[in-house]
Amino acid sequence: MPKPLYTQELRALQARLVEMQKWVQQSGARVVVIFEGRDAAGKGSAIKRVSEYLNPRVARIVALPAPSERDKTRWYFQRYVPHLPAAGEIVLMDRSWYNRAGVERVMGYCTNEEYQRFLHQAPIFERMLVEDGIILLKYWFSVSDVVQEERFRSRLNDPMRRWKLSPTDLSSITKWEDYSRAKDTMFLHTDIAEAPWYEIESDDKRRSRINVMAHILSKVPWEPVPQAQIEIPERPPSAGYERPPRQWTNSVPDYAREVEKRAGAAD
C-alpha cells in the first residue's frame, strides 16, 4: 500500500477510533480485542496504531509474561479474568488465552490433557463473556513463511528490535507446519458463532493495520457522541507568587543544546 495513501487513511481511522472510544465510555460498553498470529506477523505494530491516540485510562494493552509456577496451579483462564474490561473500557490483548492452543501446544509447554481441556473450555468461556455483554473480537494475523523469515532477519540486524528475537520465536521457522496444524485445530474448535475468528493477511503491514482498524470500527456498534463544549478560561492576574530561584532545584542538563552545537559544528 503506498505510504501517502496509508498515512492519510490511518489518520482518518484513528480519528474514528477516538470517536468510538467516546461511545464506549458513555455507553458503558466492554470491548475485548484479541490479536493472535505467528511471530513477526505484525500484531504488535497493529496494536500500536490502534491504541496510539486512545486514552490509556480507557483502552489498555494486555501482554502477559510467561506464567509463574503459581499460575500453573490455577484454572487456566483465571490469570486472564482480572484483565477483562469493566464498563467503559477497551482491552487490546497482545496474545491471549490462545497461547495454550499455539506455542504451548507446539513447544510442549502443556500436557495433552491440558490442551484438550482448553479446546473444550475456550468456547464455553467465550460464550460466557459474550452472554454477559462483552464485545469480543478475535483476529489472526497471517504471514507467509518467506515474509516471516525476512522480518526475522531484519530484526537480527537492527539493535533496536533484536530483543524481539528469542529461541521460541525462531522455532516458528523450524516448526512452521506444526504451528499450521495447531492453528487449524484451534480454528476448528473455537471459531464459534458468538465469537468468530477473523483472519488478517499481514504480508503487507500497512494494509493489515488499515484492515483491522476498519473492521473493529465496523463490528463495535458505536455511534458518534456529541462533543462537549469546552472553553479555556482567562488566566487570573498574579497574586504575588514568585518562583523560587532555579538553582534551588535539580535540573536535567540541556543535552538538546549540546546536540544542536554538534550539529552546527558539523555543518
Automatic annotation (TrEMBL):
Keyword Transferase set for record: yes
TM helices/strands, residue ranges: none
Keyword annotations of the record: Kinase, Transferase
Enzyme class: transferase
GO biological process: one example: phosphorus metabolic process
Entry EC no(s): 2.7.4.-
Transferase keyword on record: yes
Superkingdom of origin organism: Bacteria
Pfam families given in the database record: PPK2 (PF03976)
Residues covered by region (Disordered): 228-254
A molecular-function term among this protein's GO annotations: polyphosphate kinase activity
Residue ranges of every copy of the Polyphosphate kinase-2-related domain listed in the record: 5-222
UniProt similarity note: Belongs to the polyphosphate kinase 2 (PPK2) family. Class I subfamily.
Protein purpose: Uses inorganic polyphosphate (polyP) as a donor to convert GDP to GTP or ADP to ATP.
Subunit details: Homotetramer.
Listed NCBIfam families: PPK2_P_aer
Protein name, entry field: ADP/GDP-polyphosphate phosphotransferase
